[in-house]
Design a protein that fits this description.
alpha/beta; six-stranded parallel beta sheet; two-stranded antiparallel ribbon; about 50% helix
C-alpha cells in the first residue's frame, strides 16, 4: 500500500512555530495578529492565501511572507514536537512493507529540513510540497503526482491528514482519506470533506492499516 502523510498536524505538532511566525510576520507590517482560535484555521492552506485575505495589498503580503520565511529559516523549523505514537506507527508500517511519502501544504523548502531531522524521516521515499509562489494548497495535484511517481493504484493508496484539504485531495483522486483527530482539524470537518474513516490515535491508524 502507498501511504501518503500530511506533515503539520499529522506527523508533527508545529503550532508553536506557525503561530509565532505569523505574529512576527504581521508585526513586521504593523498589523495585529488575530486570536489563536482564528490562526488555527490558517494551518492547512498556503500562508500567502491567508495573508492576502487579511492584508489585501500585494506588497504587504510579500513583506509579511518574507518576514515569516526569515524567522522560519532561523528558528521556526526547529519549533515542533512529534506526536506521541507516531514513530512507532511509521516504523510498523515500514516493517510491513508499505511505501510512504509526505504530501504537505508547507513549502517544500521548509518541509525538507524538518523531515531530514525526524528520527523516522528516512522512512519516507518522497516529499511533495508547493513552491514559494503557490496560491493554492495543491493537495489534489500533489497526490496525483505521487500516484504517478509510485505507479500506485488509487484503491491501494491512502492519504492521512488532519484537515479537510487532505481529505478533499484524496477524494479528488479516488483515494481513501483517513482523518486524524490529534491535529488541527476536527471530526466534523474531516467527515464533511469525505473522510473514509477517522482515527483518534496513531495506534488506531496502525491497526487500521495493518488489520
Amino acid at each position: 500500500m502507498l501511504c501518503l502523510f500530511d506533515l503539520d498536524g499529522t506527523l508533527i505538532d508545529s503550532g508553536q512555530s506557525i503561530y509565532a511566525g505569523i505574529r512576527y510576520a504581521l508585526a513586521s507590517v504593523a498589523v495585529e495578529a488575530p486570536d489563536e482560535s482564528v490562526l488555527r484555521d490558517w494551518i492547512g492552506p498556503p500562508l500567502r492565501l491567508s495573508f492576502s485575505e487579511l492584508l489585501g495589498d500585494h506588497d504587504r503580503v510579500e513583506a509579511a511572507l518574507d518576514a515569516y520565511r526569515q524567522r522560519f529559516a532561523e528558528i521556526g523549523w526547529r519549533e515542533h514536537t512529534v506526536y506521541p505514537g507516531i514513530p512507532a506507527a511509521i516504523d510498523a508500517l515500514h516493517r510491513a512493507g508499505h511505501r510512504m511519502a509526505v504530501v504537505t501544504s508547507k513549502l517544500r523548502t521548509h518541509a525538507e529540513p524538518i523531515l531530514a531531522e525526524l528520527p523516522f524521516g528516512q522512512r519516507f521515499a518522497r516529499l511533495y510540497g508547493p513552491g514559494p509562489d503557490s496560491l493554492q494548497s495543491e493537495k489534489a495535484s500533489m497526490i496525483a503526482t505521487a500516484l504517478a511517481d509510485f505507479h500506485a493504484d488509487p484503491t491501494d493508496t491512502v492519504m492521512i491528514g488532519d484537515r479537510r484539504y487532505d481529505i478533499e485531495g484524496a477524494v479528488a483522486n479516488q483515494v481513501r482519506g483517513i482523518g486524524v483527530l490529534w491535529g488541527f482539524g476536527d471530526r466534523h470537518e474531516l467527515e464533511q470533506a469525505g473522510a473514509h474513516v477517522t482515527v483518534e490515535t496513531p495506534a488506531q491508524l496502525t491497526d487500521l492499516l495493518l488489520g
